[in-house]
Each structure stands twice: as structure tokens, then as C-alpha cells.
Design brief:
alpha/beta; 434 Repressor (Amino-terminal Domain); Endonuclease, Chain A; six-stranded mixed beta sheet; 12 helices; 6 strands; 12% strand; elongated; Lambda_DNA-bd_dom_sf; DUF5753; DNA binding; Transcriptional regulator with XRE-family HTH domain; Cro/C1-type_HTH
Length: 284
């Protein structure tokens, strides 16, 4: 049986980004680094994109080549030692697909999340019964144990909203997701009431795109923009679809999805009007 790869942590991603910037600052190409240190250019690419964690001696060789000051070396070595930590991911999450555990790790390190959802209530705002109904419906071949593991994981993630330094969450939901009776009328009404309560929390913003808005840029699919407080961490885009999950972090992609989200903010109802619409749907 193949060994499951570890999901990249936010610390590993940060280390990778700083090593990439250090090399860029020297003007060296990856091939130049290979020639001077023996570190394979492909291996260096994987290190700089957080696809693999470097060996300690590899890190030391790179820092020496880039003539990094001793105090900066100590900081990066400390970051390296912490880079394998997966945050709050628990042992029972081993069965989760690699992309999802990666998402969990990045989300746990984020300062803010901007989430557009066209088909579901976003996971961070789902009730347990709604989450269970969604997971059973989407993963129709999953066992009861697998469903419950995923429900537990989804509910655990919501602790990010009640931490001492809570995640700033801004969600835009298509009206279709609010009218689809996932789990039946009672489950859906409870879910909608939960959204109304969540909207009262200062660090949570909820907007709804009504049917009356017609076609809009979010219709091709859901996406999430994760913002990080450390200026060395670029925003990260997460896109989920039938073909699987992907992460995007190029400047072009970040600019595109930021603009898409801003456009959806303009198309959607105001937060107050959105709550009024959710309340109306719940009463229907």
C-alpha cells in the first residue's frame, strides 16, 4: 500500500516562499544552485513550492549559498523545525483525501477567508445535521464511519470562528443553496436560522445573491480566497469541482479571484437585506 503524503502546512509553505525569495535575491537559477551545491534542480523546485520538506543539511547548504545572516538563519531553522506540525489535525483524519487535509492546514493558519458558494452553505457555517446530509448526498459510496469522520472534521473546523483571535469570514451564497432542502424541511429550516444567528457575529459577513440578479461570475463554480496576516504569505485560492480540488497562488490567479469576489459582493444583497431574505426563506 502506498504511503499517503503529508499535507503541506502553512509553516512549510512559508519556509518554501522565503527560500524562493532568497534564491531570487541572489539572481541564481535552480540549475545554478544544482551546479554549486549538488541539490537537484527538480528537488529544489519541489522544496520551493512546498511539495516536499527539505532535509536539514539541504536547508543548511542553501542558507550558506545565499549568504543568509546568522540571525536570519536561526529564524528559518526554527521555522523548519515547526514545519511538519499539522496544527489541530487529529489521528482520525488520516482517511481524508490529501487536498482536504492541506486545505484544513491552510485554513487554520489564515487570517481571513472569503468564500463564494453556489450549491451549499459553506462548511464553516453548517449545522451538524446539514453537514451530515450534504456529505451523505455527495459521497454516496462512503461508509457510515467515513461520513461521521467527515462530519466531525467539519464541525471541528468551526472552532476557528470562536478562537481568541477568530477567523474573519465573509461568505457569499447563491439563493439556490438556501432553497435546496438538504436533509429535509426541518434540517434546512434549522440551518437557515443558524445562518441568521451567525450573521450577528462581528467577524462574520453573509451576503446572498438572489435569483433576481440573473447570471453572475460565480456561476461556473465555488471558490475560496484565503488571506494570511504574515506579509510573506501570499493569498491562496482554493477551487473545488467535479474534477477535484486545486490550489492557486500565482499573482495572476489571485488578482482574478479577488476581482471575482469583489464583483460578487456588488451583485449580492447587502448583509442586512441578505439576512432578511434568509429569514423569509426559513419561514416559507
Amino acid at each position: 500500500m502506498a504511503t499517503k503524503k503529508s499535507a503541506p502546512t502553512i509553516r512549510l509553505r512559508r519556509l518554501a516562499g522565503q527560500l524562493r525569495r532568497l534564491r531570487d535575491g541572489t539572481g541564481l537559477r535552480r540549475e545554478d544552485v544544482e551546479e554549486r551545491t549538488g541539490i537537484n534542480a527538480t528537488t529544489l523546485y519541489r522544496i520551493e513550492t512546498a511539495r516536499t520538506r527539505p532535509q536539514y543539511r539541504t536547508l543548511a547548504a542553501l542558507l550558506k549559498l545565499y549568504v543568509v545572516p546568522s540571525d536570519e538563519q536561526e529564524r528559518l531553522k526554527s521555522l523548519y523545525k515547526q514545519s511538519a506540525n499539522q496544527g489541530w489535525i487529529q489521528p482520525w483524519h488520516e482517511d481524508l483525501r490529501e487536498e482536504y487535509t492541506a486545505y484544513i492546514s491552510f485554513e487554520a493558519g489564515a487570517y481571513g477567508v472569503r468564500n463564494y458558494s453556489g450549491q451549499f452553505v459553506p462548511g464553516l457555517l453548517q449545522t451538524e445535521d446539514y453537514a451530515r446530509a450534504v456529505i451523505r448526498g455527495v459521497l454516496h459510496e462512503a461508509t457510515d464511519e467515513q461520513v461521521e469522520d467527515r462530519v466531525r472534521t467539519r464541525i471541528e473546523r468551526q472552532a476557528l470562528l470562536s478562537n481568541e483571535k477568530p477567523l474573519k469570514l465573509w461568505v457569499i451564497i447563491d439563493e439556490a443553496a438556501l432553497r435546496r432542502k438538504v436533509g429535509g424541511r426541518h434540517v434546512m429550516r434549522t440551518q437557515l436560522k443558524h445562518l441568521v444567528e451567525a450573521a450577528k457575529v462581528p467577524h462574520v459577513t453573509i451576503q446572498v445573491i438572489p435569483f433576481s440578479s440573473g447570471a453572475h461570475p460565480g456561476m461556473p463554480g465555488e471558490f475560496i480566497v484565503m488571506d494570511f496576516e504574515d506579509p510573506l504569505d501570499t493569498d491562496l485560492i482554493h477551487v473545488d469541482g467535479q474534477a477535484g480540488e486545486i490550489f492557486l497562488e500565482s499573482d495572476v490567479d489571485i488578482k482574478h479571484f479577488r476581482a471575482e469576489f469583489d464583483h460578487l459582493v456588488a451583485v449580492a444583497k447587502s448583509p442586512d437585506d441578505s439576512v432578511a431574505l434568509i429569514t423569509e426563506i426559513a419561514a416559507g
